[in-house]
Amino acid sequence: MNGQQQRQAEIVQAIALKAQNQPLLGSGLWFHSDIRDNYYYASYLFAAAVESSAILHDPADAKKKAESVLTKVLHLQQNDPDQPLYGHFPLNLNPSPEQAHPHELPVELMGSLMAYFYNRYESELSTELRETFETGLRHIYLGGFFRKPLQMFNHHEAKYTAAKIIFGQRYEDRELLEDGINSLRKTMERVTTQGMPEYGALPWFWHWVQAFTCAWELTNDSGLKQELAELLDYLWNERSLFYLKGAWVGAHSRVWPHDAPADRNVLHDYVQFGDFPLSKDMPRTEYAGFFCYPAPEATRQRALQRKEPIEVHKQIIKIDTGEEIPLHSYVYVTKDFASGGIWERVKEFDNEQIRWLVSFPVTADNSVNQLTFFHPGDGYRDGDPRHQSEYAEVLYDKNRILTVFPVPADHPHQEIIGVLPKGTWIMGEAGLFGQVQNCYVSILVKGNYSVEELDTYNQVRLQGEPAAVAVEVLGQEEAVKHDINSLSSFVERMREANLTLQHGADIPTRLTYLGISSQDKLELTFTAEN
Question: What is the reported pTM?
Fold first, then answer.
């Protein structure tokens, strides 16, 4: 086994043991909140029973249990071609699986993964389950969830494209296969020339990777396999640019709670790169333990070797608003931290854009590893820092970020929220100074603030007219250059830093900052729109 295969085996074993030890509900399933979790757990338990039986205390019983759950999942498929969502599965199974209605989402990825699983384990399945899989896959094919044109080049369409290829080949549907190949080529052209409109979208980036890896695994056509490999090379190169030891650095167009304010959906990164510890908490299993496209060595080395800091600049063309909107992202990546974000505010789906982050490596306990400040927007609630307002002006420069929050005076919510990872923090009149992992962090503020220690991170509440922050981060090696060897010496040096704010009714707002890591003064100037 190579390193990637060993890490995959580690994931298979960990999830299989969880599945074997978790009691089934009265329905014969483990979960009712999401049907997919049952399918994934059963897949891993079955794989371990037939390939790694030594780790299970009763492999025969484990296999039987896995087959039972897989059968129950497949039996929940809508198999009546005259009904809406033919070929689909329900999503939420409450109050009971029998009452659950088909939903358009589960089959998008799960359908292709079912084809992969059946192709790999057909000979190991019981006769009954083999027939159930055959029937279920044909319902997926005939239901044709993937028969849709390319429009937005998003994660839904990526999964449609891969499924067209997978099911077109499986059922020798030449027209469908050709549609998939054409969609693949258009997708490749779009993302390589205009970027991925879903920048930093988690977990949906991993749906791109899994869908096209699944197609790559299942095709025997060498030409098509090469075209799929080129797209996968692009995707992993994109990942490597925004990678820091399991963290996805920089801005996010969308993100689920398991990746904000902590990077926890890390299984695919763990298999590919393996340079951070794997936590026992695996919030989204999917198929990281089953397949992994080997990224080009140059891509892997870019992600793994961070001897020198790099700056990553990207332009992305958004099209889902009905017009083409150019967006620009920036991130500064070192071996100890990364900082940056996107210059433009866009109200993304569900208002989940995270404008900027300071990110630290993923740790074994899955603790919060992101630092940010924002004004809460639509959808915000305490403890969920994914919903920000448009009231932020930003300036990024390597290890420094300036932000002013021009919240209108008549706005009902004036507080700015800050998220600080656990570490050692010192509160001062000018702001906060902390040590997080191997880094020293200074946050100078304009306004009055308070800090509340929550279970997983520290939350700052800041108010000003307007409020503003200047964040400066020093990694270990940079700190040594400035004769900083402790948090107290860092605080002493930061007395040299200066943050000034000019603001008035008839003048532009100007935030000026001079820190310690650069002699360059940063100045953020803007005129508030009326």
Answer: 0.97
